[in-house]
Write a structure and sequence with these properties.
The chain has three helices and no strands. The protein has 81 residues and is mainly alpha-helical. It is elongated.
Length: 81
């Protein structure tokens, strides 16, 4: 059984397009273009290493965001008790 914070976090993640805003998506598009431009300069081996790095970095970023969001919920819970 999932705890209520996990359920809330999953719901926020599922609906992130509704609240992240235009600026976030513009920055995301710029970052994607820069990454694709950089990746064109890589050898096959470098491309594989970069993709491995991206996978690990994406996992790390997600874990950090979830931990921070969880802590924010717990702090709000304490404040509004």
């Amino acid at each position: 059984m999932k705890d209520y914070i996990t359920v809330l976090l999953e719901d926020l993640e599922e609906h992130d397009r509704e609240y992240l805003g235009w600026e976030y998506f513009m920055q995301s598009e710029r970052a994607m273009k820069a990454m694709k431009t950089l990746e064109k300069t890589f050898s096959h081996e470098q491309r594989e290493l970069f993709r491995d790095y991206e996978d690990k970095q994406t996992t790390l970023d997600g874990t950090g965001r979830m931990a921070l969001a969880r802590r924010a919920f717990l702090l709000a819970k304490e404040i509004y008790r």
